[in-house]
Specification:
349 residues; Rossmann fold; five-stranded parallel sheet
């Protein structure tokens, strides 16, 4: 996975010289953030793009890139993936949409991609992904306007929080909201339709990255709750604070997820049970998410715990806080006998 997030070389397949198009945004974004490896634009219609020589195909490159970003039309994706497999490209990122979420033809194309990579060394992120940005590695492989070098825009601050999202737009939007409230971002990853790589893959990867303290999840569905359970358990065992926003509570939202992703979502109740088992707080709105992440970020080093004490001048307020704490997976335990005696000595009867 490190090879995907910190590649030594990149191919941009279908890249355009028109920076007003999505296919034309990746190259200037990579240049702005000073990506250090070689970049190989691939487009048979152009001899050069900017200062870069342009190649007609992956097979014409001087080396097999570690990551190929696919920006070609939907009809050209399957042959491109097959070419990537033949060229032993380790990772392919498919940005284009129009696959399983469109039913009919898109479902067939999805199956062709899956069969093309089966048994090979090539892994696929997407389709319908908005890419990723690992700030530590300095690789902004995304067209998101959140990281676009628009004059006056403040870049995402580096930190220890990772945002992993099945939704591209919301993944980067959540990162921007957290950054606006002083939270430093380690990485943003958006997985799209998850034909191959999915959120549990990245949970497990970042669970083993030492400088990551928090993992924020935005999810719509899951293919395998067993893999989710293993990934979340590993993250908790590694001392990471994990926060989850899971949508699809209502029948109409669940139906919308099916149309958005082309998959049937896991029942919301099953997700809730999984989070409760793994002691993962499930949050319902942006304000609560921001407060939770900020509170953990600014806690003292080593304060990764679900045990809390409530200090309040109001009995009713304390009970209210206790209800909320339990709802979000925190443990409100009574004080030890020694602490209780010390408190009695200084508090009025």
């Amino acid at each position: 996975m490190h090879q995907l997030l910190s590649p030594r070389s990149l191919a941009l397949v279908g890249v355009s010289p028109d920076t007003g198009k999505i296919a034309g945004r990746l190259l200037p974004i990579l240049d702005h953030y000073r990506y250090q490896g070689p970049i190989y634009p691939v487009n048979p219609l152009h001899p050069t793009i900017g200062e870069y020589p342009c190649y007609p195909g992956l097979a014409d490159l001087p080396e097999a890139p570690e990551v190929a970003a696919v920006l070609v039309p939907r009809s050209a994706v399957v042959p491109l993936v097959q070419q990537a497999v033949q060229c032993a490209v380790p990772y392919v990122v498919i940005f284009i949409s129009g696959f399983a979420e469109t039913r009919t033809k898109g479902v067939s194309l999805t199956r062709h991609i899956a069969s093309s990579i089966q048994g090979s060394g090539t892994r696929v992120l997407g389709p319908n992904s908005e890419g990723f940005f690992d700030l530590q590695a300095g690789v902004p492989l995304s067209f998101s306007p959140i990281i676009d070098p628009i004059p006056g825009r403040v870049p995402l601050p580096k930190g220890s929080t990772v945002v992993l999202s099945q939704s591209g737009g919301l993944g980067f939007a959540i990162s921007a909201q957290l950054a606006n409230h002083g939270v430093g971002i380690r990485a943003v990853m958006t997985t799209g339709n998850e034909l191959d790589l999915d959120l549990p893959d990245f949970i497990r990867y970042y669970a083993n990255v030492d400088d990551v303290r928090q993992i924020v999840l935005f999810l719509e569905r899951a293919k395998d709750l067993g893999r989710w359970s293993q990934a979340l358990h590993e993250a908790r065992q590694r001392g990471k604070s994990v926060w989850a926003v899971a949508i699809g509570q209502s029948p109409v939202a669940a139906q919308a997820i099916s149309h958005h992703t082309g998959t049937s979502p896991v029942h919301y109740e099953e997700f809730s049970a999984l989070f409760q088992t793994e002691q993962i707080p499930r949050l319902d709105d942006m304000d609560t998410l921001i407060d939770a992440v900020r509170g953990t970020q600014f806690a003292k080093s080593g304060a990764h715990t679900h045990h809390v004490a409530i200090l309040t001048a109001s009995g009713g307020g304390g009970i209210w806080c206790a209800d909320l704490a339990v709802r979000y997976g925190l443990d409100v335990s009574p004080p030890s006998e020694d602490l209780a005696n010390r408190l009695r000595s200084i508090l009025p009867p």
